[in-house]
Amino acid sequence: MIALLLALLVAAGPSPDRRPPVDQCASDSSFAEFRDALREAIARRDRDRLLAMLADDILVDFGGGAGRDDFVRAWELDRPQTSRVWDELGAVLALGCAREDDGTLWAPSLYRQLGDQEDPFTAMLAVRPGAVMRAAPDPASRPVAMLDWDVLTLQPDDGADDWLPATLSDGRAGFVARGDVRGAVDYRAGFQKAAGRWRMIVFVAGD
Questions:
Q1: To which H or E segment does residue 50 belong?
Q2: What are phi and psi of 74, to 5 degrees?
Q3: Tens digit of each residue's pLDDT (9 = 90 or more) over 148-191
Q4: Sequence-distant (≥ 6) Cβ neighbours of residue 50 within 8 angstroms
Q5: CATH number among 3.30.450.40, 3.40.605.10, 1.20.1070.10, 3.10.450.50, domain 29-109+184-204
């Protein structure tokens, strides 16, 4: 009887707020071709090919950095084999793509999925299905929830270097590994088509 009552209470609780990545961009064959070429450049760590796919005035940061030269400096592409850009850009492209009304495309899709609806500085998405929220910032701590593209809200707490305090939409609270979540103000890439050619116009983090 107790087990049945617990099951009924769980069933009656709020549904988890889950937002898996969407790809609103694959239907555009020209962009799909561009994205495949970009992924190939990432896989090969091909500096010259990547730079050729950037807009002349690509936004690099919110401190005035723009253009290919600033992009090269920011990502240390004078040493392309050790640049972090390949991992960061690859992670962004792996998490879907969303379309703005003006035709700009954004990756990951969560930039649009979260950016218009929640506080972009506290809303996060669990991007590793099967990751675990835990009761304390310790991988051996008691599990609180299994995550599957859940929306979480960061809490004002010190946490730990590799762990973030967060709350799920159903009120459960705990800690998540930093690498298991992303927010709308983490790295994102914007793309526009001009004169028949796609270019990456933005690759930034922050707001």
A1: helix 47-52
A2: -60, -35
A3: 999 999 998 665 679 999 999 999 999 999 999 999 899 999 99
A4: 38, 41, 42, 77, 85
A5: 3.10.450.50
